[in-house]
Specification:
alpha/beta, Rossmann fold, six-stranded mixed β-sheet, five-stranded antiparallel β-sheet, 11 strands, 30% helix, globular, binds adenosine-5'-triphosphate, MacB-like_ATP-bd, cell membrane, ATP binding, nucleotide-binding
């Protein structure tokens, strides 16, 4: 890793993104400059339509920016009107883990295989993938549910399985879209504390889109978007 070890894992410089043409044009993001270091959990908040999902999708290379520079894990990924990497799918698989509001577990695979699948798709053999899946489920304290089908898991358990899946390929960057929206306060805090632990122990950068005020104190930084711009940023007071 050498010189890039201490560089921020996510860097956006002057990023802009619009949708549509002419009268119907919507400027979803304007002049976004933001860096996220390893070991940090950043919250993204803002009113509906302020650009939170667009920002996450740009970092994930699912949407292409119109202007600016995007660098992930020390590598410039988009600049000067084009992607600097050809294989965006491989980039996503290697560098990024995703966690969604509704965990999106596959209903016909048990917890272990939901996690293992992410690894086999990336080329890991099935036996090794299952072994690591069980280790991850243990790490997230849901190991005793390893053989359960998603329909039998509680919301909090399912979200931990989804986090295990997001960690499967050891991504340094984790993007989460409202990961606690379907959970009560207690479980939401547990999930956020797990994400904090992952950030610290695995030196990951985690960005979480959230409307959920009950977890605001769990972030290292809380960035507020309004009308596609960064309106403010604060360091929340930490609750015990
Ligand atoms: N694919 C698209 N085509 C056209 N307009 C879009 C598209 N995606 C987003 N937008 C517009 O871009 C702006 C930002 O949307 P975005 O979904 O990023 O907001 P958000 O902050 O995530 O909102 P919410 O909290 O409701 O999910 C909105 O005006 C939205 O209507």
């Amino acid at each position: 890793m050498g010189g890039t070890a201490s560089a921020p894992l996510v860097v956006l410089e002057g990023i802009a993104k619009g949708f549509g043409e002419g009268e119907a044009r919507v400027q979803a993001l304007s002049d976004i400059t933001l860096s996220v270091e390893a070991g940090t959990v950043v919250g993204l908040r803002g009113p509906s339509g302020s650009g939170k999902s667009t920002l996450l999708n740009l970092i994930a290379c699912i949407l292409e920016p119109d202007a600016g520079r995007l660098a992930l894990a020390g590598e410039t990924v988009w600049e000067g009107g084009r992607y600097r990497r050809r294989d965006l799918r491989a980039l996503r698989r290697e560098k990024i883990g995703f966690i969604f509001q509704f965990h999106n577990l596959l209903p016909f695979l048990d917890a272990t295989d939901n996690v293992a699948l992410a690894m086999t798709l990336a080329g890991t053999g099935l036996a090794e993938a299952r072994r690591r899946a069980r280790d991850l489920l243990d790490y997230l304290e849901v190991g005793r549910r390893a053989a359960a089908m998603p329909a039998k898991l509680s919301g909090g358990e399912a979200q931990r399985v989804a986090i295990a899946r997001a960690l499967a390929n050891r991504p340094r960057i984790i993007l989460a879209d409202e990961p606690t929206a379907a959970l009560d306060s207690e479980r939401a805090r547990v999930v956020m504390d797990l994400l904090r632990q992952v950030a610290r122990e695995q030196r990951a950068a985690i960005l979480v889109v959230t409307h959920d005020e009950k977890i605001f104190d769990r972030f290292d930084r809380l960035v507020s978007l309004r009308d596609g711009r960064i309106e403010s940023e604060l360091v929340p007071a930490k609750a015990a």
